[in-house]
Amino acid sequence: MLQKERGARVRGSSKKEGRAEAWTDKLWVYDLRANQHLTLKQKPIRRSDFYEFIACYKAGRMHERAETWNAANAEGRWRCFDYDELLKHDKLSLDLFWIKDKSLTDTDGLPAPNIVAAEIVDDLQAALAQFTKIAVRLAQTADIEGSADMAESIKPQPLEAAK
């Protein structure tokens, strides 16, 4: 099963019964989010963003997998973590980072605060529009009295300008 985690990190797993001994001794991780400026409106994630991951994943041919990350290529997005290495992480956290965030080291390349604020507003408005559509659909399909009135009453409200 593939899961897209918050921030566009992709993790693959299979559901198996629990047991005392680990089912696997390696965890393969592809970091799509590092140094990518993905947003809901201006630069949404696209199918083409996953091409490298698909090539690295090698479904059905795990024995052919090879990391793109190493000491010589610190920007490599595909990395394998050994089970013993994961046990050393605080609280067994799978929030794994290895690619340096260039925006934290190259402050000259950061967008102006008004651009960052506009991007945040765009993202919030896009998210609100998506949730509004979901709420309307749920209200229309609900088997409760007055659901049509509920669907009519759910309308996105514009964000007020900062004073």
Mean pLDDT: 76
* % residues in beta strands: 5-15%
Quaternary status of these chains?
Answer: single chain
How is the largest sheet built, in terms of strand order? 1-2-3-4
Counting helices, strands and paired strands, the structural category is alpha+beta
Helix content class: 25-40%
Counting DSSP E segments of at least 2 residues, the number of strands comes to 4
Q: What distance lies between the first and last C-alpha atoms, to the nearest angstrom? A: 47 Å
Q: Count the domains.
A: 2
Question: Overview of this structure, please?
Answer:
This protein folds into two domains: 2-106, no CATH class; 113-153, no CATH class. Helices cover 32% and strands 12% of the residues. A hairpin with a 3-residue loop joins strand 1 (2-5) and strand 2. The termini are far apart. It has five helices and four strands. It has a four-stranded antiparallel beta sheet. The chain is an alpha+beta fold and 163 residues long.
